[in-house]
Amino acid sequence: GQIDPTPGSWWSGTMRIVGLTGGISSGKSTVSNLFKSHGIPVVDADVVARDVLKKGTGGYRRVVDAFGEDILLPNGEVDRAKLGQIVFSDPGKRQLLNRLMAPYISSGIFYEVLKLWLKGNKVIVLDVPLLFEAKMDRWTKPTVVVWVDPETQLQRLMARDGSNEEDARNRINAQMSLDQKRSRADIVIDNTGSLEDLEENFRIVLVQVTRPLSWTEFWLSRQGALVSLLSIVIGVVGGKNLYKASL
């Protein structure tokens, strides 16, 4: 019942999906907002993750079963700050949370993309902090990484959170390095300079990612798109029913 869109699936070409990622304090959120301000719809994985952890959802039940009711607020919702503290200090628990949430987040992202495709959007941005780690880059082309050098990243994080150097380094080291992400990117936005520099770099990237789809891209993807979409919908509905039956 899990959804696993891959390159060459029904949407590749009919809609360009731009992968956007970076690291903590790299400026990814600023770039995400720049896309929105230029009329490009953005599917934010963090927003999806919050939605799939709301009280009463399948993700909520899985996480509460795994981590206990101590992570709940008085109103029954998950205390995201407390859960974050738990998983940040324990790599094993962080991996457990990622395993529990990944199917729900992937499905949530899929539905957001589907809605935008049905509305006729030709270009959308997937804003995913763990784009490479979760292997979601296989859905996207091109992949954009917002990069800063390690020292700039450290100083910006300490200034933003008021944290000491050790805590800031620990948070940065808990992620894939920006240099690693840069090596896997199709497009790199260098954000070591000023906001004006970033906006200038962004304008160049915007032209690249909004260029018209080539006829090859368009027609290859149109062949069998409706059949593929129908099979996906049938699979999703069937998968949901199977999941409910197993509870």
TrEMBL record:
Source organism superkingdom: Eukaryota
CDD domains from the UniProt entry: DPCK
InterPro entries according to UniProt: Depp_CoAkinase (IPR001977), P-loop_NTPase (IPR027417)
GO cellular component, one term: cytoplasm
Similarity comment text for this entry: Belongs to the CoaE family.
Keywords from the UniProt entry: ATP-binding, Nucleotide-binding
Pathway(s) per entry: Cofactor biosynthesis; coenzyme A biosynthesis; CoA from (R)-pantothenate: step 5/5
Species: Linum tenue
GO aspect biological process, one term: coenzyme A biosynthetic process
The protein's name in its UniProt record: Dephospho-CoA kinase
GO molecular function, one term: ATP binding
Job description of the protein: Catalyzes the phosphorylation of the 3'-hydroxyl group of dephosphocoenzyme A to form coenzyme A.
HAMAP family with a match to the protein in the record: Dephospho_CoA_kinase (MF_00376)
EC numbers on record: 2.7.1.24
